[in-house]
Design a protein that fits this description.
Blueprint lengths: L12 H31 L6 H35 L4 H28 L1
């Protein structure tokens, strides 16, 4: 996939299909996490309204989709940079992306909670 046309990698049908699949799974996961967390809050005795459940799902969606975009963009540039230097992207990019995702998710989640609630 990457060796065919490095300059126009985003035009590749394979890459577009992968990104669409990731977006679909991320969207479903975010909605699921928001719904389950609302259900668990209800079972623990918290009063829930349709507005509060919607806000929880919105926070989950905003956090998930924002981090997905950030990770995809940084990963793409990181992989191509490392690949051009004849290094293995798995050894260098994956640890960096894990750290970015861990810290970034906490920051984006906190920002989303402040914006939506």
């Amino acid at each position: 996939v990457f060796t065919r046309n490095v300059k126009n990698w985003w035009m590749s049908d394979d890459i577009r299909k992968i990104i669409r699949t990731i977006l679909f799974v991320a969207f479903l996961s975010a909605v699921y996490i928001g719904a389950v967390s609302s259900l668990l809050a209800y079972l623990k005795g918290f009063t829930l309204t349709l507005v509060s459940v919607t806000k929880v799902i919105q926070v989950s969606l905003l956090t998930t989709l924002t981090m997905l975009c950030i990770v995809v963009i940084i990963s793409a540039f990181g992989v191509f940079y490392v690949y051009r230097r004849k290094e293995d992207p798995n050894n260098l990019v994956m640890p960096i992306m894990t750290s970015v995702a861990d810290l970034g998710t906490i920051l984006v989640f906190a920002l989303a909670v402040n914006l939506i609630f």
